[in-house]
Amino acid sequence: MKLSYLKKIRIVVSLIFFISVTALFLDFGNWLSPRFTNYFTYLQFIPSLIKFIRITGIAAAGFIFIVFLALLFGRIYCSSICPLGTLQDIFSFIHRKIVKKKYFKHRKASSRIHYAFLILAVIFLLSGSLFAVNLLDPYSNFGRITVQLFKPLLLVLNNLLAFTLDKLNIYSIYPVEIKGINFIGLTLPFLFLVIVFWMSFSSGRLFCNTVCPVGALLGLLSRFSLYELKIDKEKCISCNLCERACKSECIDKKGKYLDFSRCVSCYNCIAVCPTNGVGYFYGLKKNELSGGDNVDLKKRNFILSCMGLMLLPVTSIFAQIKIAPKNPSKLPIVKKNPVTPPGSISIEHFTANCTACNLCISACPVQVLQPSFLDYGILGIMQPKMDYQTSFCNFECIICSQVCPSGAILPIEPGKKKITQLGKVTFVKENCIVYTEKTDCGACSEHCPTKAVSMVPYHEGNEIIASLRMPQVQNEYCIGCGACEYACPVKPYKAIYVEGNPVHQIAKKKEEKKIKEKINYKEDFPF
User: Strand, coil or helix: what is 464?
Assistant: First the structure.
């Protein structure tokens, strides 16, 4: 039976996932609902696996479906669902258009290197760190590339278009402020993009079969697939078309053998074969077709029966501040703990589950979430942090908790978010403009949504200066949103800043004082 239609289906599915996931990362206007986001992140292998390990439940079990597909038909995830895989295909397609006679050729398997990367990721995961996983996960790397490299370019184009249309009195597109771009945030994704670009140009899916730990794991499972792509030696005429078309470089024309553990199910071989000599065959008939090694059926049955173990849980914007200080602040600020997003529970929970895919960074409407460098230590590089130099956490917003695919940020209700204390505010009097320049300010108190910062009469020794008021902090009411820190006009060191809580706490709710006013109803106009 001719199966060339499989390639067309694969292209359509992969484009749907690629365009949708790309749209999620580039959505700077929050047009896409969290439900739409969850549809396409549910099947991303690493985030789903991490979320399942921590939470356990069908809502976090998308990776099980990927495992099931691999045990049936091989690495379908690599060909159709993984956005980085499709990006590599796009690079290879461009290369073939530039170099007309570009063909793939059989390459020996780099199994030791590939499994070494997988073992490294597993060791870090079992030790409670996602460092290796974050560096190698294809979905998370695609997210960082899209958010840190492509999204700023999109925002620049949007702002240029908005400026142009504004001249024509068309206001359907509005400009967006670009915040938080830093050297570290750009360098690592750029280097990774260059590596993937070079590998794709030279050898198709070389990254998938040499570096990617997801590819290594699914490749192992593919060895036990119920149905496998194989070459029918009786129909094969040694035309070499399948080997030239194989982007995984896993087809050996001399031995008429297809290494299914490296096959990413692109179906190029099926599409170009003139004799229908390549197709899906029942896995147990391996020796009759492709000339592979003998299959240990006991080993196969043992591994398939043990797949159930994977179901077990594993432990392991403000008005512009018009106050401009005359002199720079002098007392340096040293923060002990970074601030993690609402819903992340604690620094330990967040760093143990975050794959640094940057989806929350992209979804954050005020851009307060930014990639970190060494804030969580070397093992937490690129994991998001609340950057109050860049922006502040909107009092009403819970978007990051709705889009996180790995469970690092758990869903949180708006009411609970408003009393969740991410950190506590610290006031540095020596940096405050009221103290240094004897000038009224009050920006921190003005913008505090919980009134944890209030203004009190300024004391200089035993003397009260009636014309000046100084900030006073009541940490029991602070939720660590960073509004005060962001609003503080002094530079380079803020006079007020948020110190992150290692474990999120609950803040008290400040009671509003009701003003009782006596009204003389005998008057004609009491108001």
Answer: strand
Task: Give dist(CA 508, CA 243) in Å, integer.
Answer: 67
pTM of the predicted model as reported, rounded to 2 decimal places: 0.82
- What's the helix, strand, coil split of the chain in %, to 5? 45, 10, 45
Query: What does the alpha-carbon distance between residue 402 and residue 245 come to, in Å, rounded to a whole number?
Result: 41
The DSSP secondary-structure symbol of 424 reads: E
Residue range 369-377: average pLDDT?
90
| CA-wise closest residue to 471 among 500, 446, 499 | 446
At CB < 8 A and 24+ separation, what contacts does 513-518 make?
A: none
User: What is the average pLDDT across 475-488?
Assistant: 94
CB atoms within 10 A of CB 379: 16
Structure-token pair, residue 111: 């199994």
pLDDT, tens only, 192-214: 999 999 999 888 899 999 999 99
User: Whose CA is closest to 404, among 448, 349, 464?
Assistant: 349
CA–CA separation, 190 and 212 (whole Å): 17
Q: Residue 178 and residue 480: Cα distance in Å, rounded? A: 23
Amino acid found at 357: C
Determine the angle formed by the axes of helices 5-26 and 83-98, rounding to 10 degrees. 110
Nearest to 220 by CA among 246, 185, 212: 212
Query: What stretch(es) of the chain map to CATH 3.30.70.20?
Result: 347-506
d(CA 102, CA 464): 81
State how beta strands 369-371 and 278-282 pair.
unpaired
**Residue 394 C-alpha from the chain's centroid:** 20
Burial class (CB in 10 A: 0-12, 13-18, 19+), 316: exposed
Class of residue 419 by CB neighbours under 10 A (exposed 0-12, middle 13-18, buried 19+): middle
Residues 67 and 219: their CA atoms lie apart, in Å, by 11
Say whether the peptide bond before residue 492 is cis (omega within 30 degrees of 0): yes
Maximum separation of any 2 CA atoms in the chain, in Å: 107
Long-range Cβ contacts of 117-121 (<8 Å, 24+ apart): 117/210, 117/211, 117/212, 117/213, 117/216, 118/213, 118/216, 118/217, 120/213, 121/213
Give the integer Cα–Cα distance in Å for 416 and 353: 22
Name, in order, each residue with C-beta under 8 angstroms of 180's C-beta and a sequence gap of 6 or more: 367, 370, 387, 390, 391
Is the CB of residue 151 less than 8 Å from the CB of residue 28?
A: yes
Q: How far is it, in rounded angstroms, from Cα 482 to Cα 497? A: 7
CA distance 192 to 147: 13
Q: Please report, as a single letter, which amino acid is at residue 185.
A: G
Core vs surface per residue 173-198: b (16+ CB within 10 A) or e: eeeeeebbeeeebeebbeebbeebbe
Share of the chain above pLDDT 90, in %: 56
As a CATH number, domain 347-506 is 3.30.70.20
